[in-house]
Amino acid sequence: MAFKRILNIKTKSGGQTAILVPIILFLVSLFYLLIFMGSLFRYQENSSLFIYTSEYLKKFIDKPGGLIEYTGNFLMQGYYSPLYGSISVALIILVFYFILLKAGRKLTDKIHLIRIFALLPALMLLVAQTDYEHFMHFNLGFLSVACYFWIYVSCESRYTRLLSIMLFPVFYYFTGSFAFIFAGLFIIYSLFFEKGISRIMIPALLILIFAVTFFIFRNFIFYQPVRTLTAYPITLFKMAGLKPIILTLIFCIILYPALLKAAISLSDFSSVVPRFEPAVYMVLFLLFFIILYKSYKPDLAKIIRLETMAANSDWDGIINQQEKFPVSNLIAEYYYNLALSEKGILCDRMFHGPQDFGPASLCLPRSSEYYNRSVYFYYTIGMINEARHLAYESMVAYGYRPGNLKMLIKTELINGNFRVAEKYINDLRQTFHYRKAAEKFEKLLNNPELIRSDKELGRKLFLLPGTDFFVRPEDRDNINLLFHSNTSNLIAFEYRIALMLLEKDFKVAVSEIRNLKLLGYNKIPRHLEEAAVGYSNITKILPDLGGLTISPEAEKDFYEYGSAHNLYSSRNDNLAEQMKKAWGKTYWYYLQFK
Predict the structure, then answer these.
(1) Among residues 22, 127, 148, 144, which one has the least CA distance to residue 72?
(2) Which of 54, 201, 266, 342 is the most exposed place for a label (fewest CB within 10 A)?
(3) Helices 490-502, 371-381: inter-axial angle, 10-degree rounding
């Protein structure tokens, strides 16, 4: 009975279905993005920085498509709030649906078909948003294509339609490669809905205008290569490089008139749709629920949260998340080790979280792929010049981002380059969300005493190398050079020990214990102590402890570890799993099972 009532819902224009479909679309988009994709908005906010200056604008007006990215970056300023991000994207998806709906109504009065074929690309746009690299300007591009098409089909006279086509160069300049999608949509529309000679002449006119515009833009105005003019901001130069959902969405938009025409021509199909329209919506929403569920990657969301916490220096938050909800991922383990180092407990706690990548998780490669992440390692360890260098390389490669701009300011302040720091602070001040941070940095300008007393920057001053050295390709060498040039840098010292432990070179690591007291330690870091206990039990030789002692707890734990190992071995249990439950946070477990 309930299903019958659903099927009996009025589906006439203006009926319940016309109201329920957009409401459900908006609510599904809003709550999915807010509940499951909140980390996406912080990631995207950290991937761009809108600066209210003419210099920033100039970076976007020198090529077609730049202005739509500029507009997208403007709207993404509020992405630090997941609620704002969810509402703004959900509204764009809803408007996209309504524009396609209005355009479709200019082509046919079969409202039931129009609603279905307008809902499909709107749901695809929602699925596309689950990709962390799908930024706001992509949504605006698809929305612009739909709007331009609606404007054209809404023109009543031949002259107004001709005028709208003549405005195509403006559309191309604003949207860039999205103009190719519109051209495809326009040609398909003309072939299926125009009559007589207009079916050929109108698309031919658009192609002529497009070709002339392309020639002028390339050779006389922007002097950009063909690849830039065809692959920015969306890559149409190599279609295979696009995500499957984006490819499907593009073809769905281009073929929108053809799909409507085909459905209209099937009289039996168009007549049966009104009776089963609600059921079709139920199937569509259910199908896309499944796709959205499959698209959600919880580990990726955790990694993005770790990156956000690293940008905000929330080291306790990183440690807490990676220990309670661990992710066996190189980036996650890198941030965990970074947080432990900032807290001074790397060799006390690093095996409380997963260490599946060995020494590779201590420092990332200095390649463009990792600029925005590897910079934190050099800043943490005290190689401030290298941190400044990577932050600058990141700015050149990706433009201003909150992370690289703040890192440039901090490193220039530490180095005493106040004029350069002031320039970057002025840029940061011209933003919406980071003005308070700029004001804080501004107070430190030309005030070395205040920098030395600053909780973060002052600490970094004590980590600086005592003598200059050339940065080596291998970070192992850089860590050793840094420590030998400044033996007060205990972060560099613990990175040396951590490298040895993760490489299972525990004999050399244990030999460093004799220096601990001279360095200011009053106890042996827990994991180094575990290595020492294992070493003494294997060799029957007590290492030189330099005046420190091994705690009774470590001796007791090692004895219990051995007893548990023998017990589980005798039972033929899954030894590694059983040992991990009770002893997975020890160096002994890592040494034996990793």
Answers:
(1) 144
(2) 54
(3) 120
Tens digit of pLDDT for each residue in 539-579? 888 899 999 999 999 999 999 999 998 888 877 668 888 89
Interior angle at CA 50, CA 48 and CA 51, nearest 5: 135
What is the Cα–Cα distance from 559 to 550, expressed in whole angstroms?
Answer: 14
As a three-state string, the secondary structure of 166-208 is: HCHHHHHHHHCCHHHHHHHHHHHHHHHHCCCCHHHHHHHHHHH
565, HSE (Cβ side, Cα atoms, 13 Å):
12
* Closest C-alpha among 12, 89, 15, 28 to residue 282: 28
Burial (CB < 10 A; 0-12, 13-18, 19+), residue 71, is middle
pLDDT single digits (tens) 324-380: 999 999 999 999 999 999 999 999 999 999 999 999 999 999 988 899 999 999 999
- Contact status, residue 368 vs residue 358, Cβ threshold 8 Å: no
CA distance 88 to 213: 33
Q: Are 129 and 89 in contact (CB under 8 A)?
A: yes
What Å distances lie between residue 478 and 469, 472, 482, 527, 559, CA to CA?
9, 6, 6, 23, 38
Ramachandran category for residue 65: left, alpha or beta (phi over 0 → left; psi -120 to 50 → alpha) = left
Structure tokens at 114: 């129009």
Question: What distance in Å separates the CA atoms of residue 495 and residue 499, rounded to the nearest whole number?
Answer: 6
pTM of the predicted structure, to 2 decimals: 0.90
Q: Within 10 Å of residue 168's Cβ, how many Cβ atoms?
A: 20
Distance between CA 594 and CA 400 in Å, rounded?
40
CA 292 to chain centroid? 18
Query: Which residue carries 């569920």 as its tokens?
Result: 293
Q: Could you give the dihedral angle defined by the CA atoms of residues 418, 419, 423 and 424, in that order, rounded to the nearest 10 degrees?
A: -30
